[in-house]
Amino acid sequence: MTKIRFATVWLAGCSGCHMSFLDLDEFLFDVAEKVDVVYSPVGCDIKAYPENVDVCLVEGAVANEENLELIHLVRSRTKFLISFGDCAVTANVPAMRNMLGGTDQVLKRSYLELGDVTPQLPKDPGIVPPLLDMVRPLHEVVKIDLYLPGCPPSAQRIKDALTPLLHGEKPVMEGREMIKFG
């Protein structure tokens, strides 16, 4: 039996969706029998997103140039892309920065107004990835195959979405238990 090439990605979010994924507990053994985890921030030390990924869960919104570059790469190399959690589906909490009116205001608020000891803007390149003007949900940037809302989605909801995928079927996302936000 050929295993599913499986990945997870973490963009601008809190990692709560990945923590909820780990709450699958014993079901993770069932998942492990059917998938090869080829990329994930959880338990993997793989630096580059591989080609020919069958299924990928993407947590978080698109907030900076690194996120934008990665989500385009992920989409181009993934057959079935899942917008994983409310930040990925709606941009949710990361999009609150959109209210500040641009990247200069975001950086000033974060590093100067809220700086504790020595407030200063980061000067060296690479410290803060260049921010995008607006934080966006995944579907505004790439095509999404399935939306899995929740903040975070419960382990049961994740299991109910993954189980059909592990059998080559598309999950049915209907009813409050599968589509409720928050």
Uncertain segments are none
Helix content: 25-40%
Q: Give the spatial strand order of the biggest sheet.
A: 2-1-3-5-7
Q: Which structural class is indicated by helix and strand composition?
A: alpha/beta
Mean pLDDT: 94
Distance between the termini: 37 Å
Largest sheet: 5 strands, parallel
CATH architecture: 3-Layer(aba) Sandwich
- Cα Rg: 17 Å
Tally the structural domains.
1
CATH topology-level fold name: Rossmann fold
How much strand? 15-25%
What is the count of β-strands?
A: 7
DSSP helix count? 7
Name the CATH homologous superfamily: NADH:ubiquinone oxidoreductase-like, 20kDa subunit
Report the order of strands and helices: EHHEEEHEHHEEHH
Name the descriptors.
single chain, 182 residues, alpha/beta, Rossmann fold, two-stranded antiparallel sheet, 7 helices
Protein described:
The structure is a single chain. This protein is an alpha/beta fold and 182 residues long. The chain has one domain: NADH:ubiquinone oxidoreductase-like, 20kDa subunit (Rossmann fold), CATH 3.40.50.700. Helices cover 33% and strands 21% of the residues. The protein is built from seven helices and seven strands, in the order E-H-H-E-E-E-H-E-H-H-E-E-H-H. The strands form two sheets. The chain has a five-stranded parallel β-sheet, sandwiched between helices. Strands 4-6 form a two-stranded antiparallel sheet. The longest helix has 13 residues. It is globular. The termini are far apart. The mean pLDDT is 94.
